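2024-03-11 09:14:02 INFO worker-7 job=invfold-0412 stage=load source=structure_tokens
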């Protein structure tokens, strides 16, 4: 009987255990560590907390929480705090201490490092630092604090998840000098920067903070309709600029077509020119085709930009509607670009007007290219639309906004995203190819391959674009995985349903987030179009297989000057516009950059070396290749004479006398005076100054290309410095690592910084003969000053909105240094034929600048480097 009773008792225990195990409430209680945290055993804990609010000189106000908790050893989970940070027990104990009953992932605070745990015989101390930025008007948590940006005030509450009934030993709120009010009036002390509480309950800490009006102005300029209007104004200005350039180019081409091209002289062309024609090839029968392409892009880009800017703020639009719209828009952009149109490639040497048509005929080539492009883009668009139409087969809802998805559903979302992104990448590439091909910027080998095997070219490019789209998806996936891990760092294990919903949301938004990023950089196409038009107008002219005679121009024509200045504003100015921190002013920034370059050039042109020599001197001594060679010989002779005078001063006569050397210098001076028709040139201008002012090449276009290449190389360290600072800044680093397009944005910044330096060098080379200054470094200074005027205005605006202008100044200092080094190497290139006679480039520098001039150049570069170092130290400390 006793054995029977024991078996009955054992069965009863097993039955009760099974019921308890299967009870949903009990299971949830076991899964939720908050229920087993035994927070009541923490009543003997000691807590200190500090809140620091930093908004002065910050683009986004920064809130930092610093909390130290000493828990008694009697708390059952105290020992687990000392375990490995990767252990389940550690995460359970830390979650109980910091989050209590909160669900992991409910807060979005940032923690720069894991909490520091220190154990003693009687307690375990946990030091936890968290921070966040005020970027919206939504409440957020940071450590034990809750910040509520409520209109014109910010409410600060001490609202911990645990330890609410414990009197905190010390509480401090450092509010950075802002106005505040203690709502409960329990603070122990107060200063102009903040409040201190001692031995108070968390409920007794409530502060109302008055943010400065600058924070409201910044929010209005970056988050309201003003920001949208600013971006729209940028696109409108860019479209107008392209349209004006295209119309003026068409008018110039029409005038040239009805005029008479200049004829070479009957005499020796190499000696006496017959006509003074501009350094621009305006004799073009294909000009209407290219200008029509530019006008199409101006209208299309402006229309698409305005449409997207109007659609993005709309609420209630489903992902399905966005996907359909973006797929059709991408397909239309590719087909409207018509990359199969041959356009007007540059005429190669040896190609006469009666050159036979390529194999298969022009129309046959165009048909094959059109079929290849249309088939590829239609197939990709069809894949995306098929998933949208047959959403049920993939287990997706009609609006493509699933709460959770299966593997097949995620595959469908990936296909829609990749197809949409592929189409837009193809559209950008198609327009870039069209501009570059018609402007003669492509290598002839590429165009021959495109004409010969279009299907293979489309297949290769399509695979590359698919790889780029896949890489973008991988970056987005990695960033979101980091974000998930950061937010759920204290979870014992991930909830599969929650993680599935998180993945589904990422894949559903992938095409839209990345399309916004791609379109944000499509303005680069406008810059490519401007450069292509410049290259198209300034390519060498060939007639009957021989290069047509031309006179060199002292500078760009009016239209070429507009295109060059616009390139400078687009690539150099826009890189600095983001430092000003107000996207609402993008359109103003573009117009201001163009206007200031014109103002500086208009003021300085009359003081340039060539302008001061007069038109008569240019007509007799400059403008043709033989004249340029004669000028360089005179400049070399001038340098040799000065070098001999220096040796004579040191006692190394070498058979020469002062009288003989002075006579040679007087002959060089007379060579200048006799070409000025009685108007003596300024005494301080020598034949060397004129040679350096003319530049290393005869055509201004060649000078511009050479300077662009030099600036690109010199800009590499500057790009590294800017990107390093961007990666070291906490907010910038968070944007790079934890946003879907953070790493692609970082790579795009690298490319665009290099393009900015190249565009600055191109502008310097194009305006080389028009900028003032006897020494080339003065030209770099004047061009930087043209950029510096908007910088000063932007710095004043930055001072008004109370953000940091030092990064803007760093960019300006780096620009000046890059242009200075470019100008020095341009001078070396002017005398590049003398390299073979000298042991090193430093010796050539010494030969060109002489000892005193070289010391000035070195000192000037060192001063600029010192300025960059000072700004850098201030930025990083």
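2024-03-11 09:14:09 INFO worker-7 stage=emit residues=877
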């Amino acid at each position: 009987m006793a054995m029977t009773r024991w078996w009955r008792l054992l069965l009863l225990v097993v039955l009760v255990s099974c019921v308890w195990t299967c009870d949903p409430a009990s299971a949830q209680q076991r899964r939720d560590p908050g229920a087993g945290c035994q927070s009541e055993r923490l009543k003997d804990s000691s807590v200190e907390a500090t809140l620091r609010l930093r908004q002065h000189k910050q683009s986004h106000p920064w809130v930092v929480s610093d909390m130290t908790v000493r828990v008694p050893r009697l708390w059952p989970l105290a020992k687990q705090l000392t375990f490995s940070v990767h252990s389940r027990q550690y995460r359970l104990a830390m979650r109980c201490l910091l989050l209590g009953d909160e669900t992991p992932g409910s807060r979005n605070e940032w923690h720069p490092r894991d909490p520091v745990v220190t154990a003693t015989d009687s307690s375990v101390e946990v030091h936890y630092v968290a921070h966040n930025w005020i970027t919206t008007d939504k409440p957020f948590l940071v450590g034990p604090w809750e910040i509520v940006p409520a209109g014109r005030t910010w409410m600060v509450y001490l609202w911990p998840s645990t330890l609410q009934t414990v009197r905190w030993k010390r509480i401090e709120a450092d509010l950075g000098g802002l106005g505040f009010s203690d709502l409960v009036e329990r603070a122990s002390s107060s200063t102009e920067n903040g409040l201190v509480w001692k031995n108070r309950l968390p409920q007794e800490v409530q502060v109302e903070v008055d943010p400065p009006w600058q924070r409201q102005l910044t929010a209005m300029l970056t988050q309201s309709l003003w920001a949208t209007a600013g971006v729209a104004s940028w696109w409108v200005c860019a479209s107008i600029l392209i349209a004006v350039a295209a119309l003026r180019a068409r008018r110039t081409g029409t005038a040239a077509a009805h005029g008479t091209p200049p004829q070479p002289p009957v005499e020796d062309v190499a000696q006496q020119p017959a006509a003074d024609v501009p350094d621009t090839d305006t004799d073009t029968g294909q000009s209407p085709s290219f200008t029509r392409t530019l006008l199409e892009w101006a209208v299309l880009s402006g229309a698409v930009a305005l449409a997207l800017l109007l659609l993005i703020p709309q609420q209630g639009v489903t992902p399905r509607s966005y996907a359909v719209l973006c797929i059709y828009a991408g397909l239309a952009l590719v087909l409207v670009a018509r990359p199969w149109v041959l356009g007007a490639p540059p005429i190669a040497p040896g190609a006469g007007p009666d050159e036979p048509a390529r194999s298969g005929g022009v129309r046959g080539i165009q048909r094959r290219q059109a079929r290849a492009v249309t088939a590829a883009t239609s197939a990709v668009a069809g894949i995306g639309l098929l998933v949208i139409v047959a959403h049920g087969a993939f287990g997706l809802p009609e609006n493509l906004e699933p709460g959770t998805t299966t593997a097949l559903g995620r595959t469908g979302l990936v296909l829609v995203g990749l197809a949409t992104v592929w189409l837009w990448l193809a559209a950008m590439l198609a327009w870039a190819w069209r501009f570059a091909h018609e402007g003669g910027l492509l290598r002839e080998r590429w165009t021959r391959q495109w004409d010969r095997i279009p299907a293979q070219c489309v297949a290769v490019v399509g695979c590359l674009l698919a790889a780029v789209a896949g890489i973008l998806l991988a970056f987005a996936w990695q960033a979101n995985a980091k974000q998930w891990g950061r937010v759920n760092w204290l979870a014992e294990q991930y909830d599969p349903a929650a993680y599935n919903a998180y993945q589904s949301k990422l894949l559903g938004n992938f095409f839209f987030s990345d399309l916004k990023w791609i379109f944000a950089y499509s303005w680069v196409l406008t810059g490519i179009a401007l450069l292509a038009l410049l290259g198209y107008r300034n390519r060498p002219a060939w007639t009957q297989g021989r290069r047509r005679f031309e006179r060199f121009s002292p500078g760009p024509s009016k239209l070429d000057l507009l295109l060059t200045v616009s390139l400078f504003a687009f690539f150099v100015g826009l890189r600095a516009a983001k430092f000003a921190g107000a996207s609402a002013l993008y359109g103003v920034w573009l117009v201001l950059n163009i206007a200031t370059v014109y103002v500086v050039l208009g003021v300085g042109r009359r003081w340039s070396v060539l302008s001061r020599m007069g038109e008569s001197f240019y007509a007799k001594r400059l403008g043709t290749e033989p004249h340029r060679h004669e000028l360089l010989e005179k400049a070399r002779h001038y340098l040799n004479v000065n070098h001999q005078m220096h040796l004579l001063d040191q006692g190394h006569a070498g058979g020469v006398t002062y009288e003989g050397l002075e006579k040679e210098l007087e002959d060089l001076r007379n060579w200048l005076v006799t070409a000025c028709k009685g108007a003596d040139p300024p005494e301080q201008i020598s034949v060397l100054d004129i040679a350096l002012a003319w530049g290393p090449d005869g055509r201004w276009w060649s000078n511009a290309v050479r300077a662009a290449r030099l600036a690109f190389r010199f800009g590499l360290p500057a790009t590294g410095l800017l990107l390093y600072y961007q990666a070291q800044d906490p907010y910038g680093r968070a944007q790079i690592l934890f946003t879907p397009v953070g790493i692609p944005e970082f790579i795009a910044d690298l490319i665009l910084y290099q393009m900015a330096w190249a565009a600055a060098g191109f502008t310097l080379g194009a305006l080389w003969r028009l900028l003032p200054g006897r020494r080339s470094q003065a030209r770099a200074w004047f061009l930087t000053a043209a950029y510096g005027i908007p910088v000063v205005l932007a710095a004043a605006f930055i001072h008004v909105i109370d953000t940091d202008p030092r990064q803007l100044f760093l960019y300006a200092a780096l620009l000046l240094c890059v242009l200075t080094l470019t100008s020095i190497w341009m001078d070396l290139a002017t005398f590049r034929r003398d390299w073979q006679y000298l042991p090193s480039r430093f010796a050539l520098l010494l030969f060109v600048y002489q000892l005193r001039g070289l010391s000035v150049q070195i000192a000037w570069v060192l001063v600029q480097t010192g300025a960059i170092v000072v700004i850098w130290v201030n930025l990083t400390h």
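2024-03-11 09:14:09 INFO worker-7 stage=report msg="The longest helix spans residues 841-876."
2024-03-11 09:14:10 INFO worker-7 job finished
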